[in-house]
Each structure stands twice: as C-alpha cells, then as structure tokens.
Amino acid sequence: MYSQIDSNKRKTTLLITIFLVFIIALGWFIGDYLGYGNGIFLFAIVLSLGMTAVSYYSGDAIALASTGSQQIKKEDNPYVFRLVENLSITAGVPTPKVYIINSPALNAFATGRDPEHASISLTTGIISALENEELEGVIAHELSHVKNYDIRLMTIVVVLVGSIALISNMFFRARLFGLGGRRNNDREGGGQLGAIIMIVGVVLLILSPIIANLIKLAISRKREYLADASGALLTRYPEGLARALEKIEQSNTPLPTASAATAHLFISNPLKSGGITGLFSTHPPIADRIKKLKEMM
Fold first, then answer.
1. Each residue of 206-217: pLDDT tens digit?
2. Rounded to an integer, what distance in angstroms lies between the CA atom of residue 1 and that of residue 297?
3. Do 53 and 113 form a contact (C-beta atoms < 8 A)?
4. For the chain, where are the E strands, in sequence order?
5. Annotated catalytic sites, by residue?
6. The three-state (H, E, C) secondary structure of the chain, written as one string
7. Whole-angstrom Cα distance, residue 122 to residue 110?
8. Angle of the 191-235 helix axis to the 132-147 helix axis, nearest 10
9. Which pLDDT tens digits describe the chain residue by residue (297 residues)?
10. Helix, strand, or coil here: 107?
11. 58: Cα separation from own chain's centroid
C-alpha cells in the first residue's frame, strides 16, 4: 500500500513538472522568441485564474446541485452516516457533509476544496448493492480524495489547462488579424536552427490544448490510483474496495445527472461511454485498479 501511494505521488509530481515546463516553454516561444512580449502569457494566466476562482469556491455546490445530490442528516440514514463518521475519525479529517443521489447507478464522488469544506455523495444504488466492507472501501476512497487535497490539485491543473488554451487561442487570433511580433535580428538570421525552433514551436502551439488535456487526464488517473491505495490503507482491507469495484463494473449503469464536467469526480466513469479510449478517459481501467488492490492483499 505504501509503495503504491509513494509511486503515485511521484508520478503526479512528475506530470505537474512537465505541465509547468510546457507552459513556460510556450510563454517563452510566443513572448521572447516571436517578440510578442509577455502580455499574452500574463493575460492568459490572470484570466484563467479569475475564471477558476469561481469554480474553486463554488464548484462543490455546482457539482452537487447538477448531479441531483440531496443532503441527509444522521437520522435520515444512520447506517451510511455512521460509516462516513467512523472513517473520518480514522482518517483524522472532519466529517464531510453526506449527500444521496436517487439513482440505481453504482457510483459515488467527493468534492470540496479542503477537508473543512468537503462533501461525499453516494447513489442509492451503490448503498443497496454493496455489503458493509465494500461500501466502507468506497467511502474510504472518497475520503482519501478529500485528505489528499485532490480537488485543490485538479483546480490548479484546470488553471494550467485553461492558460494553455488561452495562450494558443490568443496567438492564432493575433496572427489572423495580422498582429505580428518583432523578433530580434540575430533570431531572424538563425538559419536552419531558427527554422526548426519555429516549426516545433508552431506545432506545439497547435497541439497544446490537446497535450494539456492529455496531461490533465493522466493526473486524474494517477489520483484515482492514489485514492484506491490510500483508501485501502485507511480500512486495512483492500479486498473490500476491490469487490466494490467489481460490482460497479458489472452494473455498467450510467448516471443520467452526471456530465463531462463532473465525470472526473466519481469513483467510476458515470457516463459509461465505450467509445472513449483509455488515453482520453478520466479514470484508469477498473480491471487494472482491481488487480493493484489484490496485489496489496
């Protein structure tokens, strides 16, 4: 369990580092090499930060409302509430607000910018279909997302993705309207090396939104693996979550209230779309997650 946790943390750090290097390289290419200055770069960062601040502080309420989640109190469902309460004590985090989605789909998600502002939502389908140890595994997985600050991390990632998309868009709009930059004379005569840098830079600008989203999805998948391992460590029973994931995969029931904007929050892809390849999925294959959990037993 500990080796899985360490491995996934290292891989997330590496992906974030690649992300930062990529956005700095784009900023240098447009601002310094092409001579547009740092205005495009700085404006894209500021605008993306402003847009993301709204989702950072109100994104949890939007996600809960859009998925049809209804908050419950202890007396509404003592069984579920006590599971969340006991696991929160074990994890050393405040008990999050508990929500229920009236749906036969087997799914759950956590949201909130930190443990003090967290919520966990479970479908009625997953509550009725799973045994005690299995539901514990699911709740522990979601609590691990809260404890590992995954929502905050993904918010930072969204800022980076948005910045890259804005930089790319603004550059091509500037070119479209004939607003060219001014390169230095030594760069104008850069010969073959200058031509190579120009070609590589333009290709990266064209592909940058796709590359940024692929990195975002890769980070999302690594955080799912991390939450699996952290959840197993919390319950000391990896088999519970493994069995829960097997039932979730077998059910294959989509959640109608979920959307592409909230899909990454859930323990399993709620859209259940078979047309999306693993490369473009917000979740790693369930079979692989089950395999890793069984290796911990």
1. 777 788 788 888
2. 9
3. no
4. 69-72, 97-101, 108-111, 119-123
5. 142
6. CHHHHHHHHHHHHHHHHHHHHHHHHHHHHHHHHCCCCCHHHHHHHHHHHHHHHHHHHHHHHHHHHHCCEEEECCCCCHHHHHHHHHHHHHHCCCCCEEEEECCCCCCEEEECCCHHHCEEEEEHHHHHHCCHHHHHHHHHHHHHHHHCCHHHHHHHHHHHHHHHHHHHHHHHHHHHCCCCCCCCHHHHCCHHHHHHHHHHHHHHHHHHHHHHHHHHHHHHHHHHHHHHHHHHHHHCCHHHHHHHHHHHHHHCCCCCCCCCCCHHHECCCCCCCCCCCHHHCCCCCHHHHHHHHHHHC
7. 9
8. 140
9. 667 777 777 887 887 788 777 777 777 777 666 666 666 667 766 766 676 676 667 778 888 999 999 999 999 999 999 999 999 999 999 999 999 999 999 999 999 888 999 999 999 999 999 999 999 999 999 999 999 988 878 777 777 777 777 777 767 776 666 555 555 444 444 566 666 766 776 777 777 778 878 888 888 898 999 999 999 999 999 999 999 999 999 997 889 998 877 888 899 989 865 544 555 677 899 999 999 999 988
10. coil
11. 17
What secondary structure letter does DSSP report for 113? Answer: S
How much helix, strand and coil, in percent to the nearest 5, is found in the chain? Answer: 70, 5, 25
Q: Hey, what are 98's tokens?
A: 């508990």
